Amino acid sequence: MSDPVLRGIGVGSAAAAGPVARMGDPLPEPPAGAAAAGTAQQELGRAVAALAAVAAELNRRAALAGGEAAQVLEAQAMMAEDPSLAESVAARTAAGRTAERAVFEAFGEYRELLAGAGGYLAARVADLDDLAARAVAAATGASMPGVPESDTPFVLVAKDLAPADTAVLDLAKVLALVTAEGGPTSHTAILARSRGIPAVVGVRGAAGLAEGAEVVVDAAAGTVTVHPSAELLAEVAERARSRQAALAGAHGPGRTADGVPVRLMANVGGAGDLPAALAAGAEGVGLFRTEFLYLDSDTPPSFETQVEAYRAVLAGFPGQRVVVRTLDAGADKPLPFLPLGEEPNPALGVRGLRAFRGEHRGLLETQLRALAAARSAAGPGAEPADLWVMAPMVADGVDTAWFVDLARGFGLETVGVMVEVPSAALCAHEVLAAADFASIGTNDLTQYTLAADRMLGELGPLQDPCHPAVLRLVELTGAAGAELGRPVGVCGEAAADPRLALVLVGLGVSSLSMAPSAIAEVRAALAAHTLDQCRALAAAALRRA
Ligand code: PEP
Ligand code: MG
């Protein structure tokens, strides 16, 4: 018998089974005035044992890791066993401190010394903090803070994942992700989708999942089953097998079962993403988020820097479509070099194209000039990419005409816009009369249609791109495109969901752009459905109350 099932928002369509490894919450500082439970000698014994356990664990992992990683881990183990640290701990337990407080204070003393030394030593402060937290956890029996370190695959359970956590996480070991917070466009969800890891986010009750408990995470159903039955485990294994077979069986350009082409493209943030896009068989780039190149820049990128960055991406897809989005600054993507001022509602403020219609227009003009130059820089004899350029956060036909005129003035031929503000979808006819194409950004379109901030985990259930209100806006845009003979694609996260991709095609979308890891599954889903079946799925989805 399986235990009760926890529910949340599924990301992806796969399922996986495995043991829970919890991400430990940051530990509170051990209280300064707490009375020690044991004698000074006993407290010292506990502290020494904790430090030895931490060192042993680090040495064990070093032996498994080998290479440079082993050296780093061994150096950390040596720090934990440093005799002068042990002396400092002993002095503190002798003065009546608990084992955990003594360890905490002794590391704190070292920390100050290192931080004050500057340079290389100061950079080791984070290692020391990590060691201190481990030693305190070992002394108190609490779970280790931070991402789990396991030698065998696990289901990661966390409150939510920050970019800093995932940077140190060995994703090859993560069978599935379960988070208590986060919505369908949260960092966790985007990461899971880009790595093809099944995830269920916003799971109430995730905090109660015990370390080591066996669970089944079903992203398609949005469920987490604790202590799954043998039948459920067999079903998950069978699903994995048939999924692998379906993925292996679908090759080449995207098309429906009755042969209607649906171009499957990659979302990229720079040339570093090209190998994955090419390996997935992407038919070009459907969204190049150029602002991703400059999220850390304190000064605007020069014309030359931009030409090189754009040329590198264009070179990856000779003769293929590469859709470049001009800088999308503001709200969830602040650019340090672009001061947009304090606003009460940044997502509704001066962001996207709006940020460049006033005093910052020069930045947009430099970018458009650099894009035109990058296209011409393909090199002698090389086939250039088919460069399409589009603007984010366009409100209507007036915005569209302004951008199209500006871009054409720089010699850019195929100019379009993103449809991610509901007004642009409602005015799709005017928008597409002025533009060469439209690409629907379902992440923002969902946020604005349902008035649900995409950054807020607790609004996860409202951030639903399958909502009929969002789908009606997609339908309106698709219909305007069909009437005017202008291509309409989708480049938001919805395109990466194989079931929703079918609905989008049924609503008149002719291309889908997504994280490269999602392409194979979407290709397989399309190959298994005719256009009429996609239309029937779309009609059913539109009827959902
Ligand atoms: C979108 O809003 O759907 C989109 C693709 O753009 P971003 O996620 O970069 O805002
Ligand atoms: Mg957007």
Note the topology.
Elements: E1 5-7, E2 9-11, E3 15-22, H1 40-65, H2 67-80, H3 83-94, H4 99-117, H5 119-122, H6 125-140, E4 154-158, H7 163-167, E5 174-179, H8 187-195, E6 199-201, E7 214-218, E8 223-226, H9 230-249, E9 263-268, H10 274-279, E10 285-289, H11 303-315, E11 321-325, H12 361-376, E12 386-391, H13 397-409, E13 414-419, H14 422-426, H15 428-434, E14 438-440, H16 442-449, H17 468-484, E15 488-490, H18 498-506, E16 511-514, H19 519-527, H20 531-543
Helix pairs in contact: 1-2, 1-3, 1-4, 1-6, 3-4, 4-6, 9-19, 11-12, 13-15, 15-17, 17-20, 18-19, 18-20
**Over the alpha carbons, how many angstroms does the gyration radius reach?**
27 Å
Summing up helix and strand content along with how strands pair, one would put the structural category as: alpha/beta
Number of helices: 20
- How far apart are the termini? 34 Å
The oligomerization state is single chain
User: What fraction, in percent, of the residue positions are helical?
Assistant: 40-55%
- Quantity of strands, as a count: 16
Based on Cα principal axes, name the global outline. Answer: globular
The unreliable regions are none
Strand order of the largest sheet: 1-8-7-3-4-5-6-2
Tell me, rounded to a whole number, the average pLDDT: 90
Instruction: Sketch the major β-sheet.
Output: 8 strands, mixed
Are any ligands bound, and if so which? Answer: phosphoenolpyruvate, magnesium ion
Q: Beta fraction of the residues?
A: 5-15%
What does it look like?
This protein has 545 residues and is α/β, with parallel strands linked by helices. 44% of the residues lie in helices and 14% in strands. The chain is built from 20 helices and 16 strands. It has helices at residues 40-65, 67-80, 83-94, 99-117, 119-122, 125-140, 163-167, 187-195, 230-249, 274-279, 303-315, 361-376, 397-409, 422-426, 428-434, 442-449, 468-484, 498-506, 519-527, 531-543; strands at 5-7, 9-11, 15-22, 154-158, 174-179, 199-201, 214-218, 223-226, 263-268, 285-289, 321-325, 386-391, 414-419, 438-440, 488-490, 511-514. An eight-stranded mixed sheet has the order 1-8-7-3-4-5-6-2. An eight-stranded parallel beta barrel has the order 9-10-11-12-13-14-15-16, surrounded by five helices. Helix 11 links the parallel strand 10 and strand 11. Helix 1 (40-65) packs antiparallel against helix 3, helix 1 (40-65) packs across helix 4 and helix 1 packs across helix 6. The longest helix is centred in the first third of the chain and has 26 residues, at 40-65. It is globular and about 85 Å long. It binds phosphoenolpyruvate and magnesium ion. Phosphoenolpyruvate binds next to strand 10 and helix 16.
